[in-house]
């Protein structure tokens, strides 16, 4: 028997753990952590093993399929490409270029070939109706980065390996493995932090897995963190602890804006004691090295933009930005900022609701109505790429309905699932173990500078195509229809270049002058050291200064007045992640779904008692968007007045061909999240803090 151990990194989440894959006679028999990886140091989570399940999953498509009256039919690649490009150009010829909509899902950022080739292909569609998971995720981080540092991807990450005080809001890295902060083995890093004498303080409406290991945890009323953060800034300034770097402007305007945001006022809104707010402000400002970090819970809520701006302001005015142990800018071997524009916001608005674009994309909360509302520029054909928006975006049922009305839909996706079942054609890319891997995005967000290239672990079968080959072949066909120009010649050349070649170029022009040849000599990755100070030179602003007084944000502060208490009997819904789930699409792995059910609505026992409900019973959870039925589980870990439901469930929709996932119980949280509930600053979906009522089912 031919046995070998090969190296790669797991691409399922942002932690990019190095893994060792044992292959016997062409089949994976073992996956374990790679101790030699300088970033992950051997860490993996249960999902790594599911890479093997993806590889072996009989439901995974390996050739294109086309919908026919008799069901799905396999077709050849060339025929599929011609069909797709023919239909899309036909729709655009008849209804204009914006009549084709695009949704880009999460796994795109985890695939080298998608990052190198997908944007060029999508650009050839020349549509303004582009959507992605960004607007139900990290948009507020990118907006704050764009406004303050001049580039949407210039994200400051907490230097957790050197900090002595970590203040976290709305993040549960012990379940999520960290996000907008690549820090594999987060639990171990926290223990090391505490061993150094450091403190971890967490603000979350649920006492989470991360709360269990934090030094302090405080409940916060969902959606009100902005008030807490403004009060922290207020208190830091009042205590005379504001000491921003000389290249920072706008402190007086911030001081004026937070003047009325006393800890007492914030306490009434957030449910966090004024004394606690004062203490945190004091501890943060006087800690040796402090970092404030906020994730999904403070991004996908009605004040996401204010929150992410305020987090930056807190780090900046306490002198913690760009210093070891504070928040710092990674310097990866391939500069991801070069591949993406600096960003822009509000250059155009969505047709139906007038929501602003960000970085060329419209908020996903408006996607269904852009399909359903008649008029010029209505979306009549959709392209979904690595996305499952029926389960992942608000008002999933409405989107289900909308997708059914399309003239044409193509999905680039390995599964016939809740979303792609609506497609006319599905183009499946080869799975992770058959692809080369270099992490272009997550080295840019990592808490340590490292670099790692891995050749594909397994050969791709001849009938399969890599994602980049699919984008290349669609892109070239889209370019063919019209006369050649210089712009198009560049696009064509780019599409024809392999990801390998692009990474090699990126490494060569990068700050460490590496090359693919050099990297391939160390398949466990190479260490490029801890994060280094880089400001003000690294700012993507001409004057090399940071202006805290951002109009877009300051003008939004009056809206905070609306943070009053809710209606009688109303509860606020928040989300939840579990170590063994991965957004909407990994429930087809028997290994991951086994064990106790984890789809229940969590609710504080007092809230159950008030409604005469009992633990385990079926309840109806209703919002302005709809109702779902689900079992309720009593939990003392929930803040009173708050209930929690995980997203990514709601399988077994007719036509979805997911043998294992279709047996997994639990409704889709996004059948009751509300597309009308957004952060008005940039249109981010507010899926946390949704008003709901819970009644006996
Ligand atoms: N209520 C609520 N909703 C949420 C969230 C929440 O916290 N609460 N979180 C939001 C967040 S942060 C995100 S990122 C989104 C994610 O939502 P989506 O962007 O929809 O991404 P996934 O749910 O990961 O779905 C991935 C899809 O890509 C396919 N896929 C998997 N691997 C590949 C691949 O290599 N190539 C291609 N082409 N396709 C692949 C899968 O089959 C699946 O259809 O969900 C958001 N939705
Ligand atoms: N196992 C697993 N790992 C994942 C994913 C997955 O689905 N499963 N998804 C990946 C993706 S796409 C992402 S974006 C990341 C997300 O990474 P995280 O943001 O760390 O993930 P969550 O577990 O959603 O953590 C959000 C926390 O915010 C809290 N919260 C909700 N509302 C509020 C609020 O108003 N204020 C405050 N302060 N807290 C609030 C929730 O209780 C929850 O604990 O995880 C990634 N990693
Ligand atoms: S934490 Fe788990 S899912 Fe994330 S990269 Fe590591 S092994 Fe993969
Ligand atoms: Mo995400």
From TrEMBL:
SUPFAM superfamilies: ADC-like (SSF50692), Formate dehydrogenase/DMSO reductase, domains 1-3 (SSF53706). This is Anaerobic selenocysteine-containing dehydrogenase. GO terms for molecular function: iron-sulfur cluster binding; metal ion binding; molybdopterin cofactor binding; oxidoreductase activity. Belongs to the prokaryotic molybdopterin-containing oxidoreductase family. Keywords: Iron, Iron-sulfur, Metal-binding. It holds the Pfam family Molybdop_Fe4S4. PANTHER family: ASSIMILATORY NITRATE REDUCTASE CATALYTIC SUBUNIT, TRIMETHYLAMINE-N-OXIDE REDUCTASE. InterPro entries: Asp_de-COase-like_dom_sf (IPR009010), MoPterin_dinucl-bd_dom (IPR006657), Mopterin_OxRdtase (IPR006656), Mopterin_OxRdtase_4Fe-4S_dom (IPR006963), Prok_Mopterin_Oxidored (IPR050612). PROSITE patterns: 4FE4S_MOW_BIS_MGD. Residues 3-59 form the 4Fe-4S Mo/W bis-MGD-type domain.
């Amino acid at each position: 028997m031919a046995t070998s151990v090969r190296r790669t990194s797991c691409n399922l989440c942002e932690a990019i753990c190095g893994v060792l894959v044992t292959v016997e006679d062409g089949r994976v028999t073992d996956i374990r952590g790679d101790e030699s990886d300088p970033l992950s140091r051997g860490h993996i989570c249960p999902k790594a093993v599911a890479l093997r399940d993806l590889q072996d999953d009989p439901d995974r498509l390996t050739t294109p399929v086309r919908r026919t009256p008799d069901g799905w039919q396999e077709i050849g690649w060339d025929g599929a490409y011609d069909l797709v490009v023919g239909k899309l150009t036909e729709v655009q010829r008849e209804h204009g270029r914006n009549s084709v909509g695009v949704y880009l899902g999460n796994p795109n950022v985890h695939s080298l070939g998608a990052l190198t080739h997908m944007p060029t292909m999508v650009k050839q569609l020349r549509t303004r109706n582009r959507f992605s998971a960004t607007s139900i995720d990290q948009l507020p981080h990118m907006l704050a980065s764009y406004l303050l540092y001049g580039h949407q991807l210039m994200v400051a990450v907490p230097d957790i390996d050197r900090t002595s005080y970590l203040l976290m809001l709305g993040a549960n890295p012990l379940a999520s493995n960290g996000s907008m902060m690549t820090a594999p083995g987060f639990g171990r890093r926290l223990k090391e932090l505490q061993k150094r004498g450091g403190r971890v303080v967490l603000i979350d409406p649920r006492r989470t897995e991360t709360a269990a290991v934090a030094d302090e945890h405080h409940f916060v009323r969902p959606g009100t963190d902005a008030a807490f953060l403004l009060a922290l800034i207020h208190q830091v300034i009042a205590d005379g602890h504001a000491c921003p770097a000389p290249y920072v402007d706008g402190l007086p305007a911030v001081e004026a804006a937070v003047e009325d945001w006393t800890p007492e006022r914030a306490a009434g809104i957030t449910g966090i004691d004024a004394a606690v707010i004062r203490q945190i402000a004091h501890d943060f400002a006087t800690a040796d090295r402090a970092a404030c970090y906020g994730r999904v819970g403070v991004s996908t809520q009605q004040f996401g933009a204010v929150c992410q701006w305020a987090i930056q302001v807190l780090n900046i005015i306490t002198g913690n930005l760009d210093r070891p142990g504070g928040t710092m800018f990674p310097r990866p071997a391939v500069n991801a900022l070069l591949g993406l524009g600096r960003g822009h916001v509000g250059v155009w608005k969505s047709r139906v609701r007038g929501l602003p674009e960000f970085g060329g994309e419209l908020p996903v909360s408006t996607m269904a109505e852009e399909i359903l509302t008649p008029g010029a520029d209505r979306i009549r054909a959709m392209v979904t790429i690595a996305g499952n928006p029926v389960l992942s975006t608000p008002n999933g049922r409405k989107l289900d309905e909308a997708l059914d009305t399309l003239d044409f839909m193509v999905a680039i996706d390995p599964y016939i699932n809740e979303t792609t079942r609506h497609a006319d054609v599905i183009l499946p890319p080869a799975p992770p173990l058959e692809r080369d891997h270099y992490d272009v995005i997550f080295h840019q967000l990592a808490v340590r500078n490292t670099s790692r290239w891995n050749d594909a672990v397994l050969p791709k079968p001849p009938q399969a195509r890599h994602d980049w080959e699919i984008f290349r072949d669609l892109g070239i066909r889209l370019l063919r229809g019209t006369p050649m120009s210089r712009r198009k010649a560049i696009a064509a050349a780019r599409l024809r270049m392999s990801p390998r070649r692009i990474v090699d170029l990126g490494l060569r022009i990068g700050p460490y002058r590496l090359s693919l040849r050099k990297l391939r000599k160390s398949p466990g990755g190479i260490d490029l050291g801890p994060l280094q100070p880089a400001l003000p030179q690294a700012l993507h602003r001409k004057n090399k200064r940071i202006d805290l007084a951002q109009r877009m944000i300051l003008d939004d502060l009056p809206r905070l007045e609306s943070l009053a208490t809710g209606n009688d009997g109303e509860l606020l819904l928040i989300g939840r992640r579990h170590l063994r789930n991965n957004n909407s699409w990994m429930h087809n792995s028997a290994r991951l779904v086994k064990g106790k059910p984890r789809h229940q609505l969590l609710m504080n026992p007092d809230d159950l008692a008030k409604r005469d409900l009992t633990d385990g019973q079926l309840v109806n959870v209703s919002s302005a968007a709809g109702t779902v039925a689900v079992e309720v589980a009593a939990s003392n870990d929930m803040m009173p007045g708050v209930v929690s439901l995980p997203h990514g469930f709601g399988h077994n929709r007719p036509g979805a061909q997911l043998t294992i996932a279709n047996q997994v119980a639990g409704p889709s949280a996004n059948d009751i999240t509300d597309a009308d509930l957004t952060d008005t600053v940039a249109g981010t979906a507010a899926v946390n803090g949704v008003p709901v009522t819970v009644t006996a089912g």
